[in-house]
Design goal:
Length: about 180
C-alpha cells in the first residue's frame, strides 16, 4: 500500500485478525454461513496482503494481476449467489473494489509512485467506492447499537453476531482507508 508505514501496518493487523476470525467462524457453522465467512476471510487476508507498506516490501509486478484475477473470480461468485441475500452483493462490490485497487496499485508501481493520492486511479471511481463503503460503515456501526431485552441461548465467542458485525465494520473501515491511500 502506498503511503506511510504506520497506518499500513495497522491495516495489515486489522485485516489479518479479521480474516482469522472469519476462518474461525467457518468452523461449525451452517453451509451458507461457512461460505459467507470464507468470502470475508478471503477479503480480510487479501486486504492485509495489499496493505503491506511498500517501504517495507515492494511486491513483484505479477502480484497485481493475480490479485485482480482472484478478486474478480470472488466477485463473480458473489454475484452468482447474490439471489440468496443482499450481503453477497456487498461481497461483489468489495471484490470489485479490490480488483480496482489491484489495477491502480499495479499501474502506480509500474510508474514508480511510492506515495498516496489517487493520481493513478480514476477519481470518480475511487469516489464512488469511498461513498459506498462510507455508507456501509455508517450503517454497520448503527447495527452495533445494542437492543435491550433480547435474550437467547448462550453462544460461544466465535458465534456472536455482534462480533461478526464488528468484523464487517472493521473491514469496511479498512476499505475506506485503503481507497484513500491508493
Amino acid at each position: 500500500m502506498h503511503g506511510p508505514a504506520s497506518p499500513g501496518w495497522l491495516l495489515v493487523a486489522l485485516c489479518a485478525v479479521t480474516g482469522a476470525y472469519c476462518v474461525r467462524r467457518m468452523r461449525g457453522a451452517a453451509a451458507e454461513e461457512r461460505r459467507t465467512a470464507g468470502d470475508e476471510a478471503l477479503m480480510g487476508f487479501g486486504m492485509a496482503a495489499m496493505a503491506v507498506p511498500t517501504t517495507v516490501f515492494t511486491p513483484p509486478s505479477w502480484t497485481w494481476p493475480v490479485y485482480a484475477v482472484v478478486f474478480g473470480a470472488a466477485g463473480l461468485r458473489a454475484l452468482w449467489v447474490a439471489h440468496k441475500g443482499a450481503h453477497h452483493l456487498h461481497h461483489a462490490v468489495g471484490a470489485l473494489a479490490m480488483v480496482y485497487m489491484a489495477v491502480v496499485m499495479g499501474i502506480s508501481a509500474g510508474q514508480g509512485h511510492v506515495h498516496g493520492g489517487s493520481s493513478a486511479g480514476l477519481p470518480l471511481v475511487t469516489g464512488a467506492f469511498l461513498l459506498y463503503f462510507t455508507g456501509y460503515v455508517l450503517v454497520s456501526g448503527m447495527r452495533l447499537i445494542p437492543v435491550p431485552g433480547v435474550a437467547g441461548a448462550p453462544v460461544g465467542w466465535g458465534d456472536r453476531p455482534e462480533l461478526t458485525q464488528a468484523c464487517r465494520l472493521s473491514m469496511g473501515i479498512a476499505m475506506v482507508a485503503m481507497l484513500m491511500l491508493i
